[in-house]
Amino acid sequence: MPDALPVITIDGPSGSGKGTVTQRVAAQLGWRVLDSGALYRLVGFAVDQRAIGFEDENKISKIAEELDVEFKDGKIFLDGREVTDLIRTEGAGNNASKVAAMPGVRAALLDWQRGYAQPPGLVADGRDMGTTVFPTAGVKIFLTASAAERAQRRYKQLKEKGLPANLAALTTEIEERDARDRSRAASPLVPAADAIVIDSTALSIEDVVETVLQNARRVYPATS
Ligand code: C5P
Asked: Quick one: which atom of ligand 1 is closest to the CA of 129?
């Protein structure tokens, strides 16, 4: 039986379309969104800003515990400064992946993430939503796509935002980040045993959103 509070987890590698699918499914259902990657990006960004290096796990975990973040009107503030776009660069994604390999950092962010599960329901986007953060979620999706397709999507996204982008560098960065995320000991990027795996390489966003919604309606029939 799934928990009384409806939760849909959407995990997968970077560029698989998780973010867009999460936003659209949540908008359709009128549920809340957890963008867990943003939390790791914020920790990575804070570490980079303080120029303390990426070695000292104790110090970095403390930064994660004490992070001063505000989410307001679609914008993100760290220590009172707007960082919405600054944490979306590939460099910030890489720094996020470095701090995300640290068990102390993951522990510091756990309760914060679980706090997002509030009525009427939650759609949670990340790498370990279905395995570690919300293991009893009623619908677990693992969204994947080929590395070439994911690099293309990321390239388009960055260009649309007016951010610098280079396809060859992006492909290498995506492959490196995936390898680090999949091989780490703490909450590696793997599908939960009960996850529905969707390969979106040849699918449209609409197709994926519809599949997720069908599963949500099946598991949570009260869902509109
Ligand atoms: O999803 P996004 O690309 O914003 O995530 C940035 C990085 O944060 C990922 O490469 C991954 O290392 C880390 N992450 C994680 N667990 C999550 C979400 C993100 O380890 N639940």
From this structure: 21
